[in-house]
Design brief:
Length: 285
């Protein structure tokens, strides 16, 4: 489905009225919830890069599927600490998302498609745990479907980018912002952290951190912080970015996520059934 009336605010929920949302709920119970963050993205991309991508992808997927799109959730845990980055703890982030879904569920929404446009190992673990507990403990979700959909799972050449260590503010994200809001890309101000810092961050996305202990002992919990010598915070090769690449990445993400949502829409019946479950092994030494 594509939008024909340019004056129609659908599917952007915050631009709609109470009456419009009520009429939508009379026909559908599904909603897309985009998730972003405000964090360091080098000197060439805006702090809102993840939220910017989430906003555009959410709207475009909503237009294609005919499903309402909620406002972007900006409050997340980045882990970075460069100027402009706003961190809330992963636990608070998970409460923000849970309360958002609970508020929507109380209005009658039942199928929730969380479009994740910000990663981060701590963030994703907390979100996954929070959603599982929400379904486990809150009867308001007894017949609700919650899908956690990382946007990068639907992007073209994603495997290639990840193998190359294009984790953050690299050619993928830079290309997408070039395609979506080119005026916000300052490619002439592009800088990278010097080696070996850049190589370290490309090798693993958590290498921007370092560990410290008051006593170096296996029983002592380490303090994890961003390495103080990181000044730019780019993990990848943004110099490879282009508008053409960005347009393909955006179209593939919208197409892939829309297809998955419509597949889930066609299968959901609001009834939970047992599926295979293999717990993680218990390690005792």
């Amino acid at each position: 489905m594509t939008k024909e009336n340019t004056n129609d605010p659908f599917p952007v929920m915050e631009n709609m009225t109470v009456k419009m949302v009520r009429e939508y709920l009379g026909k559908k119970k599904s909603i897309i919830v985009p998730l972003g963050v405000i964090e360091q993205h080098g000197y060439h991309l805006p702090l809102k890069t993840d939220a910017l991508i989430a906003s555009h992808l959410g709207r475009m997927i909503g237009e294609r599927t005919g499903i309402l799109t909620a406002p972007v959730i900006y409050q997340s845990f980045s882990g970075g600490g460069l100027d402009g980055t706003i961190n809330i703890s992963p636990a608070v982030m998970s409460l923000v998302v849970s309360d958002t879904l609970l508020s929507l569920a109380s209005q009658g929404f039942r199928n929730f498609y969380l479009l994740l446009c910000h990663g981060g190992s701590e963030n994703i673990r907390a979100l996954d745990n929070a959603l599982k507990l929400l379904l486990r403990l809150n009867p308001a979700f007894s017949d609700a479907l919650i899908a956690l959909m990382p946007s990068w799972k639907f992007r073209a050449d994603d495997d290639t980018a990840l193998k190359e260590g294009d984790w953050h503010a690299g050619w993928h994200e830079t290309s997408m912002v070039m395609a979506l809001e080119p005026d916000l890309v300052r490619i002439d101000e592009l800088e990278l952290d010097p080696e070996p810092l850049l190589k370290m961050q490309i090798e693993h996305p958590d290498n921007y951190q370092h560990a410290e202990k008051i006593v170096d002992d296996e029983f002592v919990v380490p303090r994890m912080t961003q390495r103080p010598d990181i000044k730019v915070g780019v993990m990848g090769h943004p110099e490879r970015a282009s508008v053409e690449i960005g347009r393909k990445l955006v179209e593939d993400a919208v197409k892939g996520a829309s297809a998955k949502i419509m597949e889930l829409e066609s299968k959901t019946d609001g009834v939970y059934k047992e599926v295979a479950f293999t717990p993680e092994p218990i390690i005792l030494i």
